[in-house]
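Quick start: load a record and inspect it. Here is Filamentous hemagglutinin:
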Amino acid sequence: MKFNFTLLGLAALAMAKPQAPPPSSSDPAPVPPPSPPPPPPPAEPPVPPPSSQPPDPVPVPPPAEPAPVPPPSSPAPVPPPPAPTDPAPVPPPPSPTGAPSGEPICECGYTYCAEVLMAMEKPWNEAQLSDAYCKTPNADCPEGSPSTNLTSALYICLCGELDQKVGDHLELLCGCDTCLNVGPDFRGRCKTPCLAGGGGEGGGGGGGQGDANVGKSDQTGSTVGRGDRRGRFWI
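Running the structure step on this input writes:
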């Protein structure tokens, strides 16, 4: 038992940390470390410039750009005016001559050979001349047909008003064997006296050149009554 305690004691000594031997009096004393250098003195504050020199100008910030102005709003489009309605067509004014427009006409009071009437710009046709022939008072028209040659008949243009210039009413003046349309006045006239049965009332003669059968007219131009029609009668 005692032996065991001895072994344990030796083991404990072996495991224990060896201690440094105490310093001997002959060893010199350790040198203390050098003291740190003193701190540097504080820096002097900057010296301001003398008052004679103006201070540096403070930079002015650039002006801020103005906000962009919004474009003006465009006005609302104006609707176009309504298209004008076509007015009713104006009827053509009445013909100042008293004669219907588009129909053949004649100059009031003038005498015309049938051939001249048929050659006008708005020509008369044979049916119109035959109708005027037979509607003339006292004209010889057996069975509604002229008794003399229609194309050589002499007609007069009669109008309802004294100041009327042209019209469309013809009446038979004379049934001629030959109807002349010569100068100087170029008014129709018969070459010889009217043929039998070929003259209307008041117009039994129409020969120019001083024909004796002039009826109720004179060679200078008298007013002749034909029913309710009046006009200047020139031969």
